[in-house]
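User: Here's a chain of 155 residues. Predict its fold as C-alpha cells.
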Amino acid sequence: MKELYEYREKLLSRMREATDEFCKACETFTDPFTPVEDGWSVHQIAFHVRDVNREVYGLRIRRTANETNPLFKNFDPDAWMAAHYKKDEDFQKINAEFKAELNDLVNMLTALPHEAWSRISTHEALGPELTLQLWVERSLAHIEEHLVTLKSLKK
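Assistant: Prediction complete.
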C-alpha cells in the first residue's frame, strides 16, 4: 500500500507542476490568437484545457468523491467550444482560473482519505466501476497532452 500512496502523492505533485508548466508555456506566445494547431490558437487551447478541467475531469473527480456511483454523460469538446468559446475572454484570466481551480482540486484530493481514491463512477460510454484515481490520471494526461503540444510549437 505504501507504493500506492506514494504514487498518488507524486500524481498530485505532477498535477500542480504540469499546470504551472502549461500556464508558463501559454505565456511564451507573443500572440495568443495566432493559429498554431489544427486551426486552434493558444488562446483556444488554454480555454479548452481550463473548461475541460472544470466541466469534465474536475467535475467527475468531485462528484466521484462525494456521490455514490455517479453517472457521467459523454462530453463533446468540439460542441462545447462551438457553444461556449469567447475570443474576447482575457487570456491571463483563463490561465489564472485554470491554475486556481486545479490547485483547489489537488487540495481537495490531498485531504481525502486513501479509501476515497477507490470510489467508483459510471460513464455512459466507458462503462461502470471507473475509480476516482482513474479520473485524476486522465485529468493529468489531458493537461500533459496539451503541454506537449505547446512545447512542440516552440521548437
